[in-house]
Specification:
Blueprint: H1 25-38, E1 45-49, H2 57-60, E2 64-67, H3 73-83, E3 88-94, H4 95-101, H5 103-112, E4 117-122, H6 152-155, H7 161-166, E5 171-178, H8 182-200, E6 205-211, H9 215-218, H10 222-236, E7 240-244
Parallel strand pairs: 1-2, 1-3, 3-4, 4-6, 5-6
Antiparallel strand pairs: 5-7
């Protein structure tokens, strides 16, 4: 029997796929679209996107989007939510955008407990701009700006984003998931749902870090890239829920 996959209603029917072959952004976008449909959020959703591969979200989804300056999606989302408290507001960002260029905006949004949800795609590199070293680049990983691999003496250590966000008092939910396998994709959807729910329940900031492959900048096939997520990334960035205020309800 041939499997039939329906397109989420919120997804545009005539979009042109602009991600590189094998990129996991497409999976992440679909999960977001499915949840917007399932949770009946389409008519009340506003997304804040930023510079990077994540910026193309407005090409795929029939929702209102605000394009923020590089790294400022959480600041933009804060303004949108405070002026439209009845809306569902989320950001969709890359790790360089969320945790480097926009680190102050991201952290203080969590510290203040802004009632928005943030999604951060962690592919350990600046994907759109040529594969430079980013805040989550792993030790020994070669990039265009770390040609001999990341070392702690010069570059420091990779950032554990989900753990840091979990430490903020305003955070209601923080988790790290991956997209390298079907079970992990299912877990990712569950985590995204929870990050959306804590906003809808008014509990505070919801955050999901998603480990994603980047075959183009890693110079790998899609299969090799997913093996890297499984065998190299997950040991460095363990999957799990680091904070969940709904457990106390």
């Amino acid at each position: 029997m041939q499997a039939v996959f329906s397109t989420p209603e919120v997804m545009k029917k005539d979009f042109r796929f602009t991600f590189c072959p094998g990129c996991d952004h497409g999976i992440a976008v679909r999960l977001v679209a499915e949840l917007i449909d399932e949770m009946n959020l389409k008519e009340k959703t506003i997304c804040s996107t930023c510079v990077g591969c994540s910026v193309f979200l407005y090409d795929f989804l029939n929702i209102d989007c605000v394009e923020a300056p590089h790294g400022r999606a959480c600041a933009s989302a804060t303004g949108v939510k405070r002026t439209n408290p009845d809306k569902f507001v989320f950001t969709y960002q890359g790790d360089g955008d969320f945790a480097s260029i926009g680190y102050a905006e991201s952290m203080h949004t969590a510290i203040r407990g802004e009632k928005v949800s943030a999604i951060c795609i962690n592919n350990t590199t600046y994907g759109m701009t040529g594969g430079q070293l980013g805040p989550t680049t792993m030790m020994g990983q070669v990039t265009t700006t770390s040609p001999f691999g990341r070392n702690k003496e010069y570059y420091g250590y990779p950032m554990k984003i989900a753990e840091q966000i979990a430490l903020c008092d305003g955070t209601a939910f923080s988790a790290r998931v991956a997209l390298d396998s079907v079970p992990h994709i299912n877990q990712a959807k569950q985590a995204l749902r929870k990050a959306f729910e804590v906003q809808l329940e008014g509990l505070g900031f919801g955050f999901v870090e998603i480990l994603s492959s980047c075959p183009t900048n890693w110079h790998m096939t899609p299969e090799q890239a997913h093996d890297r997520v499984k065998n190299e990334m997950i040991p460095v960035f363990p999957l799990g829920i680091f904070k969940d205020l709904t457990e106390n309800k």
